[in-house]
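Aim 2, interim progress: modelling of the adenosine-5'-triphosphate-bound target.
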Amino acid sequence: MNRMPKSATLELNPALLEAAKFDQEPQWFADLRQAAWDQAPDLALPDFAKINYRHWPLLDFAASGTANETVPAEIAAQQDEYNFVSVSNATVKLTLPADLAAQGVVFCDLATAVKEHGDLLQQYLLTKAIKADEDRLTAVNAALMTTGFFLYVPANVTIKAPISILQVQDSRQASNFVSHSVIVGGDNSNFQVLQRVTTVGEEKNPASLAVEVITLPGSHVKFSSLDSLGEQTHAYFNRRGHLERDSEIDWTMGVLNDGNTIADFDSDLKGAGSHAEVQTVAISTGKQTQGIDTSVTNYGKHSEGNILQRGVLLEKSALVFNGVGKIIHGAHGAQAQQENRILMLSPEARGDANPILLIDENDVIAGHAASVGRVDQGQMYYLMSRGLTKEVAQRLVILGFLGVVLSEIPVASVRDQMIAMIERKLINGQRAE
Amino acid sequence: MATLKVTDLHVSVSDDEEKTQREILKGVNLTLNTGETHAIMGPNGTGKSTLSETIMGNPNYIVTKGDVTLDGESILGKPVDERARAGLFLAMQYPAEIKGITNAEFMRAAINARRPEDDPISIRAFLKELDKNIGVLNMSDEMTERYLNEGFSGGEKKRNEILQLMMIKPKFAILDEIDSGLDIDALQVVAKGVNEMASPDFGMLMITHYQRLLNYIHPDQVHVMMDGRIVKTGDFSLAQELEAKGYAGLRDELGLDVNLVDDDVPTGNGDE
Ligand SMILES: Nc1ncnc2c1ncn2[C@@H]1O[C@H](COP(=O)(O)OP(=O)(O)OP(=O)(O)O)[C@@H](O)[C@H]1O
Ligand SMILES: [Mg+2]
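Predicted structure of the complex, ligand included:
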């Protein structure tokens, strides 16, 4: 047998598929895995404009891994704040308030969903938002998924408090983190989800994380995420919304990983009057590269999609925002706006903000703005002339720059967490400079 | 008592395009003690802001000769933030605008920059002080929650500089044309704020074009600057004399060989 594949372009070891299987998988699910597995080698890697990630070990999965059953202390300490906590493939905590269960809300880990809510899951898993055969990375995610969650909120149910999820990628040893989650908002439902993804340990590992959000007519989902995977983790993210008539998703995503990352954040505005707000904050430090493709596709008449992204670069890092606005023929009265701005703090950093508009309809409103700039020295001088150190002044300017996104975050606790994480990342990055 | 001393200061600015340096200050001497208020007057383009910015530590100004000391110790090697924490403050002629940072948040950061890291000012103490000072300056609460100077009118910016001065309480303040752009009522309000700062532990250098400001904030000494030098020092009466004679008159009386921008203006054309 060949050595372990070392790059995203090599063949996969069949033992991986065996190892990924849940106990007593139903046939439909086993078939789904197998089909994806069979297709993967023939599918192309997805394109991320201006990012060459092909040599990253994104598919360099561990052939066998012994799971570490102990929950790290720093994770245990945060457990109370979350409804769901998983470390690697193990679900450590899962709570659903009784009144929600009584209303028919389903919330469980992926393995449980496959086993106990197969009929429901089967309707939405890789059928509407993401398709397994889109490209090699979606196929591998589908074939090897071993963790994730399923949240189903039935029609007309409103949930006030956010459902919060903490997923920990375990890099205390070689291990695979292939997560696939599905969120379904039933007709006219209304709720919020927070997904935190973080790493423990320093081993070099790949991570593949997909989230599908399907909003049925009239529903409204606020989805927030805070990603802080480790420096040695090579990560692929795919978060995709499928929006039906008059539904809305408000995405707020903090891409604050320490390692190389490619991320695909898409919203398919399928239904008439559907609406997506996509807000992203990304910070790159050290030598890392993060490439973020954010796209909104208007299919539905009078659908509206707005992208607002802010990125900050320190040290020798790179960050690319590709904002794709696509308006499909027939989407009369559609609106697509995007604004991507990047601030570079170091002369060695490389930032790129590319708006891409593909419009195939006439009576639409579309626009874009993009910029890549440096910190204004006049502003720095003014702040420092009041006694602020260079570091504090820089952080204020950066937080000010990110402010348009941060102030829009609908959930106050998420906003505070995001700001705290940004500050920590900036402080670490500044220390290294 | 603390002392800010400028000795034989020569300062150049560099012209990036022509790669040349131009000397702006040509040997300035000045001693300011806490408890004193000095005024500098002088024609446009003579180097008054250059002097202020150089004392504060603006990196665009290159000191080619001379020294600036605080209590005998040279501050020229220190970056602007260290000078600020050592007790200097410059109310700027053209304050920067910064989006995304609120005025209040900025002032709190400035106060905390002077305190030990583990002992920041309490929100209550900060707000109490802020309330008091915006009261003195007739400012609205809303101004403190707006982004730093963003969209502020000329007069609001000046008031905001004085608000920062009152919150930070430095040892020495340089006020660069704090009166320009202020209407007559606003001038009195700002002067009231500045006068509240008066103490044996506070020294002030005011740059102004108009004697009017000096009616409200009384200087102990008045310096006249021309062509990068202080050419005459006196008391309040020097300001009155200037108002009567104009800069050209003073220049001719002193027998200086200096070109003034508005040389053809008849003498005695003050603003009254
Ligand atoms: N950063 C700079 N770069 C280039 N030239 C400068 C710079 N700062 C000042 N100068 C020049 O130095 C000279 C003195 O300017 P300065 O601003 O010190 O004058 P001032 O006395 O404050 O004038 P005003 O009364 O108009 O405010 C002017 O000719 C000005 O153009
Ligand atoms: Mg000036």
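The longest helix of chain B spans residues 236-254. The mean pLDDT of chain B is 92.
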